[in-house]
Amino acid sequence: MLASVGGTARADSTWSEYGQGDSPRPLDQLTESACDIDLSLRGAIAEVAMSQRLANPGPALLAATSVLELPPGAQLVEVAAQPDRRKTERSIVVDSAITSDVVESEAVLGADPVLATALVPLAGHPRFRLIVQPIQPDHDMTITARWLVAGELRDGEIRVTLPAHPGLKCRVVVHATPGPGTKVAHVRFNGVDAGGTTYELGDQDLTIGVELAFARAQPVVWTQTESLGNGFTARAITVATPGARLVGARRALLVIDGSRSMELVGRHNVKKLVRAIAGALPKGSELEAIFYDRTAARVFPSWTQPTATALSTLDTMIDNRPAGNGSDTAAAFALAKSMIEEDGPTPLVVLISDGVLGDIAANSLSTALATQKKGVEVHALVVEPGRMRDPDTDAVRDAVVKFGGSYTVLQTETLDRELANAADWLRPAWLQLALPGRTDFPEQLAAGTGVVRVDIVRSPAAVKLSSRRTQIAARPAPSTAFAQLALGAEPEALAGGVELAMTPGGFSEVRRRHPAADAEHSLVVLASAGKVAANRRAMIAGGGPFTRMVAFGDPAFPPEVRVGTVTATGGSAIDDKTLELLFRTQLQPAAYSCYQKAISRSAALAGTVTFQLEIGRGELTRATVRGLGDTAFDACVLDAAYLVTPPLPNPDFNVDDRTVANYPITFAVRENKPFAVAGDADSASPLDISAIKGGVPRGAIKAGDTSTPLGDLRVTPNP
């Protein structure tokens, strides 16, 4: 399929001009007279060629320079020069450490027309400086930059974003040939169907979306390969899923974690999530909400439309609700079950949590939500503060798998950008996905999304995608050159990359055959004029030394500074001394008060109460008590345990830990006075998530042997 858009001239430009000994300045004499972009999408791999014509109407001899910005993940693979629309000269790759000499005789060897060197990336965007040697008066030069990038699969489209091009507006031509099992349904430019409409790339980014029509209601898997030589092959695996939009009015039941650890996520972020979800629901939809910590409570007396008043009510509750200890998500899901079974449409269950649920059984949430009503979906939004990661989510993932839905992880640092994708969060995902031999493949893909993975292999084997319900064999997509995308990845991240890097000279030899500009390599168009030009080119292409030939020296460009970041981490916010202080000053007095009340009813009540306390992210997530058999007393000391207030960690400094402490207190009456004698506290504290393979242990956690004796303490009753 072919789509085109055209452009008109503008006064400003991305190019600068300079003469001998001058500093670069905006174009004055030189003009950018044409800009054309050709985008060829084969499968989900895009090859983009951007051609810009610079004209010199005279009278001075002037050179030009520009900074070329590419989409994240793109590889600049070629630059080319075409003087006066004659023969096009293409680049070769050289080491980035370059020396230059001034041309002495053009009859012997002329200047190298174009050089492309890598600059420091900006916000993930690769950047390159293009330097064009002087253009003679009344002549022109067309500079073409060609790059590769994997498309982003979102909302049923393969998307490629072209960075803005201030100055002359560019004419864009798109050729789209997707893989088998799909065809092109629409081509959109910034969300607008291109049929019969003219678009331009100007001073705003342009997102090109190729919407796919699927032959069947299941994912497609495509493979593409390219020989690297030396017995290695670059391989691209693309998985794309058919889109599924919310159609018609729906009910959405928000299950919102209001426990203390959510303070690290921030109440303002919870309000943003609620409003984004409400905004993504189709017109006429209804909303309800459950807030929970140790207990769960319904918000509205009945289902309500997400009006400004209803959302304001939720905002007020989020702002004013006390952040309590405990995260009884199972109780919240049990309440959700009763609401699901009310008359009316089956709602979507949307969980908003930080994933700190405590040590609960993997099937506890799916069991609590078990309902005979058809069409239930569970969509989980797990928000991670700072460097902390979702620790206790096996039960959530199990519920998503059992009922269908999706599991989305969000970071507080990037949440504002992700809010625009709220509709994706409410789409059912393809679950339990796996590609044999690929540990980097996601376990789920939301409807209308997909991934592209590149690797380097010795002998490409057949690829088969497995999911919860089916297996799908890969089919070959249209062939295209994409080796540089594989070579541009970290070698250790690729299936055969380590072996290739270990092969003597292997990686550098393959890189010469498949050139790209990066921090260690530049692209240069060599001079074609002069007696020695042909022999020089052959020598450099074979790995010989390179000295760049220039008509006059380059100007002084601003220095490129690579800014590094130092990440400092501290220990746990909960250590043994902190535990001792919490138990002595918070738990013991409250438990003693319970005992005082109890012996007024049962004077013979005595014995040892053992507390098991789970603490994570400043929250007492779960408490259990082995009590004395007195119902009222046992309930009272359990309540006392939930009054313990651990310190909140700094998510950008403290390690993400989980503490399990066993703490005994012996109660007795001596000389007609109640006594509470603290025992030794066994604690597994802290558990460093980043140091444990697979994250927080999912099974029972056994306390370590560390002890913090508190001694025989006689608690003074509160007045």
Can you tell me about this structure?
By secondary structure, the protein is of the alpha+beta class. The chain has three domains: 2-215 and 516-526 and 544-550, no CATH class; 251-427, 3-Layer(aba) Sandwich (Rossmann fold), CATH 3.40.50.410; 576-691, no CATH class. 18% of the residues lie in helices and 36% in strands. The strands form nine sheets. A seven-stranded mixed β-sheet has the order 1-16-4-5-13-7-8, with no helix packed on it. It has a seven-stranded antiparallel β-sheet with strand order 3-2-6-12-11-34-9, with no helix packed on it. β26 (377-384), α5 and β27 form a beta-alpha-beta unit.
What percent of residues are in strands?
Answer: 35-45%
Domain count, please report it. Answer: 3
| Mean pLDDT over the residues | 86
Distance between the termini: 84 Å
Q: Taking Cα atoms only, what radius of gyration do you get, to the nearest Å? A: 32 Å
The neighbouring-strand order within the major sheet is 1-16-4-5-13-7-8
Tell me how many strands there are.
Answer: 40
Report helical residue fraction: 10-25%
User: Uncertain spans, ≥5 residues at pLDDT below 50?
Assistant: 4-11, 685-719
Sheet having the most strands: 7 strands, mixed
Class from secondary-structure proportions: alpha+beta
Number of helices: 13
Overall morphology = elongated
